[in-house]
Each structure stands twice: as C-alpha cells, then as structure tokens.
Design a protein that fits this description.
The C terminus is likely disordered. This protein is α/β, with parallel strands linked by helices and about 375 residues long. The chain has a 7-stranded parallel β-sheet, sandwiched between helices. The chain has a 6-stranded antiparallel β-sheet with strand order 8-9-13-10-11-12, with helices on one face. The longest helix has 15 residues. The two termini are about 15 Å apart. A hairpin with an 8-residue loop joins strand 10 and strand 11.
Length: about 375
C-alpha cells in the first residue's frame, strides 16, 4: 500500500461499552506503532480525551460538547485527519473514538467522503457490552443496525457474564453482525493485530510489514499454513484477572512464486466469507500487468488495490496475510492455491477489469461506498 496512506479506524459503541478502555489497551500494546486519535466526548468535560491524552500527547484531537457525526462535516474531519496524517507527525494509524451516541454509519461516510490522499478507510469497529447487551438493545434498538454494518465487533466485558449466557450473547451478536468478525474480550483486551501492524524491527515495507507481523507470542506460517492466535494481555496487566476469557482468531499466510490469475482471485475476494476481517499484502498478476505489483488493503467489506512499480531486483512474489474470526483457514488456503495462473506468461486482455474496479485513481473522489 502507498506509504502515505494511513488507515483510519472508526471505533464506535454505546455509552459504557468500553471504547476508551480498548483504545488505551491498543496504546499500551502498540509495539512502537504510532497511533493518532480523534476522541469525541459528548458533554463539556472531556473525560475520555483526558484519559487518552496522557498516552498520545500532541497526537490527540479532542472534540468535546457534541457528537462528531453531527458537530462537523466531512471537510472539517479532513482538517483533523490532515493534522494527524502530516508526514512530520509520523503517525501509522488513526483511531476515531466516537461518542456513545454517535451514528457510526455517518462517521464511515465522512471518512470515505474525505479527500485526504494520505489516509484510507481502516474499518468500523463496534464495541458491545456483553453484560448489558439485552438492556442496550431495548433502550437503543438501532444497535442491531450498527452491528450489521460493522467490520469487526468486539463483545467486551465477557468476564461479567456466566458461560452459557456469554455464548447466547455471542450467538445473537454473530447473527446480527452478518459478515463481520466477532471476538470476545474482557477489559478491552484484543490482539492489536486485528487493528494494525506493529512497527517492524527492521525496515518497513510500505504500510504492510511481513517480517514483524507477530510478536514473540506467535509466528506466521508459510504457503497456506494457519496459526490460531490467542488474545493477549500486556505484561503484568492480567494480575488478578488470569481467568478472563480471550477470543482466538486465525491468520493465514500465503506466498506464491507463480503469478495469480486476476479473474480467479477476484472471484475469491468478491465471495470472501463471514468473519474474514483483514487482507493485506502484495499480488503478482504476471503477464496481466508485468510492470506493477498490486498492494491489497481490505478491511471488512472495504477493498482497495494499489499498483506499484516492481523494483529492479525485487523478487516477483505474491505475499498475502488474511486475518479473521471463525474462518475456514484451510479452505481459504486451497482457494488461494487455485488462483495460481495456469498460463502465467499469457495475458488475458480483460482479466484485470475486476481488479481495476478497486483501484482508486488519483483524481477519483472518495465517494465510494464500503463495498468498494
């Protein structure tokens, strides 16, 4: 992906669901990745911003006394994003923490309607309070719609719910969330890999790192191997809470020396399964476009390709990482295997049309919808 494009993640959820706790967890576990935040409190005293600002310093934009989706328009949001996305700031990912009364669909539209070339939509994360889920649905029936448009749902505070009740809540949320990945958490502790790549130890490859996709707790497999990765706690943070549940998710790593057939790959991506949250990496389409590799960035239903010239001595490989919850990693690996081109040295004149639908031209406005 273009180095200048910083993912913008919208973090939403009703009052008390644990959004600020989750954001603070991401900050503690960022591993050197620099996070910028737009924190939107509802009320004149910006309590959430105060609790986050100590972590971020001048990387925080605080919007008090109003709901972001009502208080500003897309052009104003662009100004805030421009400040955080400026190269001098050195920010790797931006998180918009919405107020508990925000309308997430409007926030997503604002991000997608933005004209900042340095940012890209990074997904809608909806946080749910497991202990208050039924009561929240009764007070705010719109929560069903919010879950339906989310890319990732974090069912928080599961430590406060007995086992059978917890499974019931998770089943209901999965039914409402549709294709979104659903993970359970306590104290907002989810693996940050669901949100962003930690800053690599060595040289970064664009916004996507392949050498440091995992910390010391897990490693990435090769050629279709899947790792079940467990949620984590910061060192020492789990004292007294050793038994709170974490939700495992799966990561599939795929490498191919044979170029991929663009028609076959797009058929796979257009029908990607429920729970597949992130796709990142580079694709070699061989003779279909011998000059460029294609960086791919997908989060939920949002998909973009970014053509980039091959380096003179760069090995021509496809390298992809797929991350999701309750996915058939083995089946996805077989599907990617089937995308290897039968005739890699022969170009299909119309084969790239499906890919080019998801290439954002420089002059293209960002009016596209989350479906791409």
């Amino acid at each position: 992906m273009n180095k200048r494009q910083i993912p913008v993640v919208v973090l939403a959820g009703f009052l008390g669901s644990g959004k600020t706790t989750l954001l603070n967890h991401l900050l503690h576990r960022s591993g050197g990745t620099r996070i910028g935040a737009i924190v939107n409190d509802f009320g004149s005293i910006e309590i959430d911003a105060m609790s986050v600002a100590g972590q971020l310093g001048d990387s925080t934009v605080s919007l008090g006394n109003g709901c972001l989706c009502c208080a500003v328009d897309a052009s104003e949001l662009d100004e805030y994003l421009e400040r955080l996305a400026a190269p001098a700031a050195g920010i790797d990912v931006i998180v918009i923490e919405a107020s508990g009364l925000a309308e997430p669909q409007e926030l997503v539209k604002m991000v997608l309607a933005g004209e900042n070339p340095h940012t890209v939509y990074g997904g809608l994360v909806e946080v749910v309070d497991a202990a208050e889920f039924d009561a929240t649905r009764q007070r705010h029936p719109e929560v069903d719609r919010h879950l339906g448009i989310a890319d990732l749902v974090v069912v928080n505070k599961t430590d406060r719910v007995p086992g059978a009740e917890r499974e019931r809540v998770l089943d209901v949320v999965r039914g409402l969330a549709g294709r979104a990945a659903v993970v359970a958490a306590s104290y907002g502790r989810v693996d940050v890999e669901l949100f962003f790549d930690r800053a690599p130890v060595g040289e970064r490859v664009g916004q996507l790192s392949f050498d440091d996709l995992r910390d010391h707790d897990a490693t990435v497999g090769q050629d279709g191997d899947a790792d079940a990765l467990q949620g984590e706690c910061a060192d020492g943070e789990c004292s007294g809470h050793a038994h709170h549940p974490h939700s495992a998710y799966e990561s599939l790593s795929f490498t191919s020396e044979v170029p991929l057939d663009p028609r076959h790959l797009m058929a796979l991506l257009d029908s990607r399964p429920e729970g597949l949250y992130r796709i990142k990496g580079y694709v070699d389409f061989g003779a279909s476009d011998p000059r460029n590799r294609y960086a791919v960035h997908a989060v939920g239903r949002f998909l973009r390709f970014y053509p980039e010239p091959w380096g003179a001595d760069e090995p021509r490989l496809t390298r992809l990482v797929l991350i999701g919850s309750d996915i058939d990693a083995a089946g996805l690996g077989k599907g990617l295997d089937a995308c290897r081109a039968d005739a890699p040295h022969t170009a299909d004149e119309q084969g790239m049309w499906g890919v080019l639908r998801y290439v954002q031209e420089p002059e293209e406005t960002a009016e596209a919808d989350p479906e791409g």
